[in-house]
Amino acid sequence: MTPKETAKVQITDTILRDAHQSLLATRMPTKHMLPVAGKLDSVGYFSLEMWGGATFDSCIRFLREDPWERVRTLRKAIPNTRTQMLLRAQNIVGYRHYADDLVERFVELAADAGIDVFRIFDALNDIRNLQTAMRATKKVGKHAEGCISYTTSPVHTLDFYVEMSMQLEEMGADTLCIKDMAGLLTQHASTQLVTALKKKISIPIHLHCHATTGQSEMSYLKGIEAGATIIDTALSPLSLGTSQPATESLVAALAGGPYDTGLDLDLLIEIAEHFKFVRKELAEHESGLAGVDTRILSAQVPGGMLSNLASQLRKQNAMDRYDEVLQEVVRVRADMGYPPLVTPSSQVVGTQAVINVLQGERYKVLTEHTKNYLLGRYGKAPGEVKKELVDRVVAETGEQPITQRPADLIEPELEKDRKELVEKLGREPKAGDEDVLTFALFPEVGLEFLDIRDGIKQPEPAAPAKKPEKAAAPAPAQAAAPAAVSHSTFKVTVNGTSYDVSVQDLAGGGCGPVTAIAPSAPAATPTPTAPPAADGKTVDAPLTGDVLRLLMNEGDTVKNGDEILILEAMKMETKVVSPFDGRIGRFLVGPGDKVENGDPLVVIE
User: Fold this and answer.
1) How far is the C-alpha of 438 from the C-alpha of 430, rounded, in Å?
2) What does the CA dihedral 94, 123, 329, 294 come to, rounded to 10 degrees?
3) Distance from the CA of 132 to the CA of which of 144, 375, 478, 542 falls in 20 to 30 A?
4) Contact 496/320 with Cβ under 8 angstroms?
5) pLDDT tens per residue, range 204-222
6) In Å, what is the CA distance from 9 to each residue of 15, 43, 267?
7) Measured distance CA(116)–CA(81) in Å, rounded
């Protein structure tokens, strides 16, 4: 389909999906893609990754764009190059397992809208979870790229990956992707793995590496030398860091040799100029994480998760505990049997690690997603799961872990969701099953989006994104500057202590000496919107998030451990339970309310 099919090495550019998901919290709107869509189409890429992953969620939650229309719009603007999406197999583009009929219908609609290549992966590398999505992709005549989610652990051996790849080829995979989402693939491992795969499978091998740990270019070269023929890159303005290596750099490095891509470097540089502008336009969404981070060789946090983790910690007012959370991620991952950290397992492990740190006690609160993982509802864990955690969930829920394919236990959902959507909308969905899928995947957010799109509801003004914090140690106190010199005063928090910092303003712009005046008084604790009753106790929010729904009514009897309401934070749901017996006196919050860590939620009398 592309004009460079004979090239020794072909390139998939992630500029329209993974690049901005990794660096800009998935906030690039379609309008920033269209001005250079025609030029991107003329490059001669193997494919352009432009949908799937977190883009579906981001479109409806933040950008107020119809994700299905994005595909159609870009397909029309890019008629000659394969369009590619990232499909989370049985999780589709959501965060739980869905019924087979939803997976099949989603693939049909995505293919109709214009997707050519479906890159299909499972967070646990459970081959059973890939079956339906692979079969559906082949049924609609599209390119099925099966993935192995690459990670390192005591249970992830070379034999494990080779065996899985052979199974994917047997299932009909047209290409095999080594999905290295955290930049863990070393040059030696790349050579070893690709060499072993070439002996056992005949389909092309596609390398996807993030640059987080600073070794992706070497891994690509060694993988190419061993027989890989497709690599993922991102145009330079949105490359490196937690994204992919730069397209222009790899094209230049391979030019003139046996692996020449045949791509026009001048054209790539021309297109890159546009995305320099885009990055500046979206600077408020920068993760604040740049350069090489070798801590990830231990924590194994992938690019998209890393930027989102930093964003969520800022929302929790806990960015100073970033290193502590990374260390806890390592421990939680081991407790859960070493899952690869990719959506949704990355959210399950990452959110649980954040809660463990913020609560000051490991596993004091278990998210619903953690419980479902421990019960086997995401699939079979790669390694042994901590028995104490499983036993606790069994005791709390009265349910036993499952051993079959999780989707086998899910009744068909499409018709049920269609009826529920019509009932909640009070009208037929404007875009038919596309709207039904949007609602099925993200019920609350999707319903709100459809009302906004159809003009039934006005969107709330978006709050400006917070700039990444830059903590700085207080400088030694200096003599006061002359009164004629102006100063700007800022508040800086270091290791939990706030300082008032005075910066001397220079006439030509910039700043002069920095003076730490003194630790400032601690900020006042926010007052709850409704004060608790004098004879009541409050149940407080375990973390910052949004109230999703209430599970009890005022006046209901409640016992220690009963579930009261559900919070949504970091894309995960967390049920808040009562720590004591009593009666629901009154709720201090309602669905849709935003709460901070420690805010009172409900009064128990």
Assistant:
1) 12
2) -110
3) 375
4) yes
5) 999 999 998 999 999 999 9
6) 18, 14, 18
7) 9
Residue 181 CA to residue 483 CA, distance in Å, equals 54
Question: Is the predicted pLDDT of residue 371 greater than 90, yes or no?
Answer: yes
Contact partners, residue 362, CB within 8 Å, separation at least 6: 328, 331, 356
Residue type, 397: T
* Rg value, the chain, Cα: 25
381 token code pair: 């864990």
Reduce the DSSP state of residue 177 to 3 states and report it. Answer: strand
Residue-wise pLDDT for 527-579, tens only, equals 344 444 445 689 988 877 889 889 999 999 998 878 898 887 766 678 888 88
Residue 118 · residue 132 · CB < 8 Å:
no
**Structure tokens belonging to residue 199:** 């002996």
- Residue 460 pLDDT > 80: no
Interatomic CA distance for residues 530 and 576, integer angstroms: 19
DSSP 234: B
Please give the C-alpha separations between residue 510 and each of 503, 504, 591, in angstroms, as whole numbers.
Answer: 10, 9, 45
Higher pLDDT, 428 or 326: 428
What is the tally of helices (H) and strands (E) in the chain?
20, 19
What is d(CA 310, CA 404) in angstroms, rounded to the nearest whole number? Answer: 36
Backbone angles phi, psi at 519, to 5 degrees: -60, 135
Cα 455 to Cα 399, 429, 461: the distances in Å are 43, 13, 15
Strand partners, 85: 51, 118
SS3 339: coil
Distance, in Å, from the CA atom of 223 to the CA atom of 225, rounded to the nearest integer, reads: 5
CA angle 103, 106, 108 (to 5 degrees): 110
Beta strands in 14-166 (DSSP E): 47-52, 83-87, 117-120, 143-149
Q: Is the pLDDT of residue 58 over 70?
A: yes
Please check whether residue 141 is in contact with residue 131, taking contact to mean a CB–CB distance below 8 angstroms. Answer: no
pLDDT at 482 over 50: no
> Is residue 421 helix, strand or coil?
helix
Strand partners for 497 = 494
Tell me the helix, strand and coil percentages in the chain, rounded to 5.
40, 20, 40
Task: Identify the residue whose tokens are 């008084």.
Answer: 521
d(CA 72, CA 393): 44
- The overall longest dimension of the chain from CA atoms, in Å, is 80
Taking alpha carbons only, the member of 87, 93, 157 closest to residue 115 is 87
Nearby residues of 597 by Cβ (< 8 Å), 6 or more positions away: 316, 317, 318, 358, 541, 542, 543, 544
Task: List own/partner pairs for 137-143 with CB under 8 A and 24 or more apart.
Answer: 137/87, 137/107, 137/111, 138/172, 139/104, 139/107, 140/107, 140/108, 140/111, 141/111, 142/107, 142/111, 142/115, 142/116, 142/117, 142/118, 143/82, 143/116, 143/117, 143/118, 143/174, 143/175
Run of H or E residues at 452:
helix 443-453
Whether the bond into 412 is cis, omega within 30 of 0: no
The whole-angstrom separation of Cα 286 and Cα 20 is 9
Structure token pair of residue 336: 């859960």
